[in-house]
Amino acid sequence: MGSLDDGTGRPRIHKGLDDVYVKETRICLVDGVKGRLLYYGYDIRDLAKFSTFEETAYLLWHGRLPNREALAAFTAELAANRPIPKELVALLKDLPKNTAPIDAVRTAVSALGALDPDLNDPSRTANLRKALRLTAKIPTVVAAFHRIRNAQRVVKPNGKYPTATDYLRMLTGKKPDKRTARIMDVALILHADHSMNAGSFAATVAASTLPDLYSCIVAAIATLKGPLHGGANETAIKALLGIESPERAGEFVHDTLAAGNKVWGFGHRVYKTWDPRAIILRDVAKELSGRTGNEKLFAVARAVEEAGVAELGPKGIYPNVDYYAGVVYYLLGLAPDLFPATFAVARISGWVAQVLEYWEDNRIMRPLDYYVGPKEAVYVPLDQRT
User: Fold this and answer.
1) 229 is an active site residue
2) Which residue has the higher pLDDT, 57 or 8?
3) 191 tagged catalytic
């Protein structure tokens, strides 16, 4: 039985599973009071400054930073596994052109599982091979589908480049300059993991039944479509693009809140102060606004930020990673509906880490629900029902 509230005889319902712990972890710490994010003890600010997505993925899977030789080998393996099968390209071409990219990714991951010879091998060694293939191929899938839906030639991956560089190159058909590629690299690092968020929890619930790794990742990808999780950055940028000028920011925030709606990109279940990732991306967005000449968007974002913090800050509601991630992605030239799929390009590394950790001491998830429906219903034959 679930725990009962004193004197009521009814269980306490944890809506949204607030304050419910499902496992111990070594992977990621989200300190909502101090506004800190750590991967295996390493501060996200240091990783964003010094690390790479490849190094970060290695850290999440192995619990330590690689030495130079290990990182070179890991990076080379990722690059070698980036191409996708021709059968998958054909599948992507058969999808309706108005398919959301995140739906295309979910479909593609299911197909990749069917094509993987290690699919039903549950060993950690095989799971790491599957993880590497998934992490390598998801950027190729996103880029290929984006170009297919725009009637453009699919750009094949190039093993000479790291993930961030090749992802942008496959999307646009042009190799990005070093600074642009580094900005994407930082964005991938910031999105790599975030403890037991909705996607990681969905992956863990699936993992608890002991399916294959691909099934766990499909469950996680499904959560990214929702505007309360992976779709938040897409929703946030659309709201910002609809504001005519920085001078209208205060009115926008006031009217949105007065109507009982959310200011998208604000608030987090854990952080009661600034999300450290948002601060990093705000600086990146400022730099990009100058480089691209689109200073209006950043000015609007800053004005909404200031108005939103003035209204919501006293309640512990501040901009989260989605707020400035949307601005950064947009200034990098990504279409807004690509944002959730780009989230998946990064978060696959964290999902894998969370699933593998849960499998170290697995127990099937089986929460309770408290029944409040009828208990004495009488079955009436079909012909006698009115």
Assistant:
1) yes
2) 57
3) no
